[in-house]
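Lecture 7 notes. Example A: sequence first, then its structure tokens.
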Amino acid sequence: METPRVRDSDVDIWDRSEMESRIRHILERTVRLRATGPYRPKSDAQVTAMLTGFFAAKGLDEIAISDVERMSGGASKEQFAFTLHHRASAHPERLVLRMDPLEAIAQTCRGREGEIQRIMGHYMPVAPVRWFDADGDLLGQPAVILEFVRGVTQPSEGGAAGVSGMGGRLGSLIDRLAPQYIDALAKTHRFDWSRAHLRYFDAPRGGSNQAAIWQVNWWSQVWWDCLVEPVPVVTLAERWLREHAPTCDAPMLVHGDLRMGNFMFEEPSGQFTAVLDWELAHIGDFHEDIAWTMQKLFGAWGDDGRFLVSGLLTREDFIARYQAASGNRIDPVRLHYYEVLNAYKCAVMDLGQAMRASVASNNHQEVVLTWLGSAGAVFLNDIIQLIRRA
């Protein structure tokens, strides 16, 4: 395939105005507040004071916050487990605070996360949402407060290692986890969002390419807002995505980050206890979720040398089971498009937003973000290979 030449004028004339209004608000707020850094990790005492003030504003009396504990992981949100007791509670509650640093690998909305997670709790196991502060009016920074859910994201024994959901081997648990994983995907995409009265979401027009264009504009705006160093392949990908944006006849709820690392299960039963991390959820093309979970980054190779989607099923078996459970037919052309889009999004996160947050010291995990910058080369290679295959 002959590689198209990207002109400087192309970058200037691309219209990025079409996107969800709430996403536009989040991206503009990020740029506006960036200069107020650096961001300093919160101490236990600061978290206690923030939570005490928040719950007082919510009308709770005789508030006691105890056992504050920073939670590991999370290059996106700063997270703490804590115990809440107040006069009206029968017993102490173990809760989780997820709040925004100034910048992270993905700039998202706690209002959207809290809203959709509350709704989806009626259809599948999720961490119940108790409160959210979409713009940080009470807590001082946007946050969501969830009930603490027990479980693991990878087996505690048996060969799993490294970051959860990335290359882990699930062994004998596959037969129990795979049906639940497919069921969660299908339920997400079958959800009738049109009856949900979503306050923080906009829906693209069916029968148009708006679902794709909104995503391209979202991540393109992130890239140009946080540009640290120009990367020609990223610009090439943006042009290709704009020129090949497919029609989506029936927009559906898209989770945005469905992979085994975002599913908690109990041991030894393998029963799911929570589908996590709804912060990237939006209304769009279900092929985006399918392409995301099929990434090699999130999979593993079986003993026979075949690649397993999310460490669970071969690509062919995964597609067949998903189609049977959801009623959706996967279009190979649209699937390939969203494979390119997802590689583009990951490159923007790693080489753009992660690096900008690290350079500006606007995140609590600068070392992790810097490492993600080096991982961006993987997605640049994916972009090149995928566009050539197109």
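Example B, a different protein, same format:
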Amino acid sequence: DTQSATIVAELGIFNIIIPANAKYIRLTVPDDLKSSFFFMLNQSLNPIDNNCITVKKIGGDFNSLVKAKNYADSLGYTTTIRVGEGIWAEELNFTTGLPHRMIGESRNATIFTNLPSSRFEIIKVKGGWYFENIKFLNGGRGYAVHADYAGAGAVEFFNCTLESYEHSAIGSGSHQDQHLILNNCNILNTGAYIGAPPLYWHNNVNNGVTNQKLIVINCNITTNNEQGIRIDDANKLNGGSGNEAEVIFINTSVYSRDFGVGNNNCDFRPYTTPAAGKLVGDSIALSQRSFGNNVPKLN
């Protein structure tokens, strides 16, 4: 007899057949054959461990996201913060302290939004943070998420909605050894044109910054009056060199009411013809693993 196991990895979801009496499976990462990871069957690759605290309106360990984050920092290790349903309006500066995992009930039930006194951005976040089942909603003229702060590791959003009314839903500038991962997310701008697509990403301005990645998997990117994606070679635009980055798009749909779904739905800067193998400028390459997107130039 056999049973099926599902593995969620960077390039998608894979199903494999294993013996029915198997309890563990070993996963070897192809890019680094020296590394193997063991996990129990039916266990998430981002498991909830014993280091878990809860945030709820009533009955949780905390009733504030900021308080929960500060407590998690005091523990001295990465902690899972489970957030209950409701609208959470707080100023979230996650650029200092430790990175943690923040998991909501669902992206329709757990909603992060602005304080009434500040409409610019809901959250500032550095590398290492993981978010799941959360809606980031900016109803004003600003980012929903601003990820442009130093910190090695991935800033990952899984099964989230990032929405802004009159700005980019996510504005991100990369840093050394930093990856932005958007997986199974809705990314949208619902307001008027101000020259800011729902997804805006640029590499680092400084020379010699490496191992930068933008990874977009199974996402829907939609907007009314502007292009869906803008990617800048910020290093090249500032006259620099020796700055390497890679972008990966897989099974992602980009739609604009005014720009449709063609190649002009994406804005790459500078406008000069990129070097061989580069998507834009001299520094940003489109990964050969990119496929299944409705915009041809992303494949």
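Note on Example B: Residues 8-12, 32-40, 43-49 have pLDDT under 50 and may be disordered. The helical segments are 65-75, 234-237.
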